Amino acid sequence: MIKRVVDFFGDEEYARQRRRLFYLALVLIVVADILVFREHAEYLWERLPGWSAVYGFVSCVLLIFVSKFLGHRVGLMRREDYYD
Amino acid sequence: MTDFIHPALLFIFGALPIPFLKGSIRKAYLLLIPALAILAVVTMQPGSYGEGRFIGQDILIANVDKLSIVFATVFTIMALIGTIYALHLPRPGQHVAAFVYVGSALGVVFAGDYLTLYLFWEGMAFASAYLVFAQGGRQAIASGFRYLMVHISGGVVLLGGIILNGLSTGSLLFGPMAGAMGAGAYLILAGFMLNAAVPPLNAWLTDAYPEATVTGAVFMSAFTTKTAVYVLARAFPGTELLVWLGTAMALYGVVYAVLENDCRRLLAYHIVSQVGYMVAGVGIGTEMAVNGATSHAFAHILYKALLFMGAGAVIYVTGRRKLTELGGLYKTMPLTVALYMVGAFAISAFPFFSGFVTKSMVVAAAGLDHRALVVLALTMASSGTFLHTGLKLPYYMFFGTDRKLEAREPPRNMLVAMGIAAVLCMAIGVFPQPLYALLPYTVDFEPYTGVHVSESLGVLMFTALGFVIFLRALDPENTISLDTDWFYRKGARYFMWIAERPLARYEKAMSEVSETAALPFMYGSARAGLRLDLNGVDAVVNGVARSALRGGGALRRLQTGVVTHYALAMIAGVIAATVIFAVVWR
């Protein structure tokens, strides 16, 4: 059972199904976020449906590219024998 | 004392017989001690135990309250899991070190005064360093020494703080810092922050943990930083500095994790990130925030150990640790993949996993405290956590490019340990109430609201979308990343360079000057002095002595002992006196 689940995420033959399931999940989450009941919102953004989706995506992209910028341009990444 | 048996003593004295036991008796014994410790913690009653006086100070060996019990509970559970994971080890050394390490951590948790705390604090440093040295090899030993040096320096800072603080407050009892923060309090804070791996004092963690043994790293990931969170929560709740350092830390770890290629170093950077939530929670200092920090520490110990156990299993089986050399293991290690993913979902705070019911409490506490920036930063760090431990690491380690590595599932005891941790991660996520009941304050927080679930899933799944789109940008690279350990790794080298080059040259020049100019002059003047001494001073002294001797001899001849001679001399004397009188007086 566990093996089949893990294979589903690894094997190439399920790639199409995986992608469909993934996009379906994304759509469902955005729809759910629009439908949920918002009782009290502390901040402006909490009132915007779908905010978390946008923020999650932007965070991810920012983290990847800011980090790589720091690594490559600012010089945090070094050859493995740097300290030898 | 029947209602309190100190679990630290169980572990520290319990470690003594381990080297003398063999085979299945040793295994049974190794499991018995943590089991007894769990029992001791579950049955203990709040109160003060082991009060006394030492060097004129009040000492309190164990102060048992809700905060210490919740940490002791998870520490003893973790000790049992870690021991099961390490049960296959043929040699006893690491078991002994791990037990002393756990015992010391428990000693810190119950310490009611700073002296007891300090002793156990140093015990933790030494016992845990062994787990790095035990790995062997040049890299591990160098890193182990750095680890030890950093922790000893931190310990000295802490001791200085304890003494200064003791002098100014007149007491060594360990509790919330009262009044204005003095120099002593800041030194104590610095010592605690070093163990909590607060940047810039964080690099020891990411330097040493990946070099430790497979089983040792599991213990290390659980204890040092979390005892630091505990002591911060006890002594410094509501310290504003900690809010900002904690928030910065949460992002700091995530940024470095993008660059990392070593699987356990990536996980170590996520300790920095996750401890950031706890440090921020302690800094906010409201009841809800301290509850959040405490419960997050509880959940973190279990899921982080699970992640380290998963990565450790891969290293154990394949002997490789770099993401650039791993891939395609899901076919041969499906159980490990599944168990690792439970840890990954827990750390990423997916609904129905432990992180969801603990991390969100810290974020919610920041929201209630009107700290919008902190909320946004911590939410961004959550996205990064899933990006790395939930997506990047498993993708490149288990899926991705198939490197055709020979692999199999790890030994059964490893799988059992991972299984227990995984069950706990899910149990806490589904039924958070027992954990909430353990927390120091009454919990007024409901994690499972519609908005909270949909928002969390939104952040996480759209992070996954970003990962899928920019997958190639995340490909691990064969590099290492510079962190603040640069200052003492390269700094020490520059120091040695200065010692070897300019300083040594100066020293050489000085000795040349002394050899060519100063020394001959000194020899010459010494010789002249000698001559003067022999021919001048000695001659005068000898001459005077000789004259005295001769004078004495002559005088001796005058004393003949014949009465007539004396009578004659007296008459001559009287005549001479009369003549002198007659001549001079007139």
From TrEMBL, chain A:
Lineage: Bacteria, Pseudomonadati, Pseudomonadota, Alphaproteobacteria, Hyphomicrobiales
Keyword line: Membrane, Plasmid, Transmembrane, Transmembrane helix
Protein's name according to its UniProt entry: Uncharacterized protein
Top-level taxon: Bacteria
Transmembrane region(s): 21-38, 50-70
Automatic annotation (TrEMBL), chain B:
Membrane topology: Multi-pass membrane protein
Source organism phylogeny: Bacteria, Pseudomonadati, Pseudomonadota, Alphaproteobacteria, Hyphomicrobiales
InterPro entries named among the record's database cross-references: ComplexI-like_HydComp (IPR052175), ND/Mrp_TM (IPR001750)
Biological source species: Rhizobium sullae
Transmembrane segments: 6-21, 28-47, 67-87, 99-121, 141-164, 171-194, 241-259, 266-285, 297-317, 329-353, 373-393, 414-436, 456-474, 566-585
UniProt key word Oxidoreductase: yes
Name the UniProt record assigns to this protein: Na(+)/H(+) antiporter subunit D
Keyword terms, alphabetized: Cell membrane, Membrane, Oxidoreductase, Plasmid, Transmembrane, Transmembrane helix
Gene3D superfamilies noted in UniProt: 1.20.5.2700
UniProt-listed Pfam families: Proton_antipo_M
Start and end residues of each NADH:quinone oxidoreductase/Mrp antiporter transmembrane domain: 111-379
Top-level division of the source organism's lineage: Bacteria
Compartments in which it is found: Cell membrane; Membrane
